[in-house]
Amino acid sequence: MIKPYLMFNRKCEEAFTLYRKAFDGELMAMQKYSDMPPHPEFPVAESDKNLVMHAQLKLTENGYIMGSDSSSDIKQGQNVCISVELNSEEAAIKAWNMLKEDGNVHMDLQPTFFSKLHGSVKDTYGITWMFTVN
What we know:
By secondary structure, the chain is of the alpha+beta class. Helix content is 18%, strand content 40%. The chain has helices at residues 12-23, 89-100; strands at residues 2-8, 26-32, 52-58, 64-69, 80-86, 104-110, 117-122, 128-133. Strand 6 and strand 7 (117-122) form a beta hairpin. The radius of gyration is 15 Å and the shape is globular. The protein starts with a strand and ends with a strand.
């Protein structure tokens, strides 16, 4: 499944509240950074613990958006990426390897506490792709 993924400068919860009201949507998930298990390679500052790590909002029958807060400034126009959810590790690795060619890896495709594989890469055309294998 492909869903737009929106990045916010500490305003994800506020934005998703507005979007939920505007579309009479259904909030499917909202996890904060404080909900994440501690990880030595990804420490969370006390001031960031109430930020949204991941949110998903159902806007229409088959339309969803997802989003999260960033602890660094996200410039407008660079705050949307394509989230691709796959069931096949092989399909994800194939696409990942092609898109990272002449691109910029933001987070290596790797196992996480919430998925078999997850990663983010900006391709050679400037489009950011977020992969999740369930």
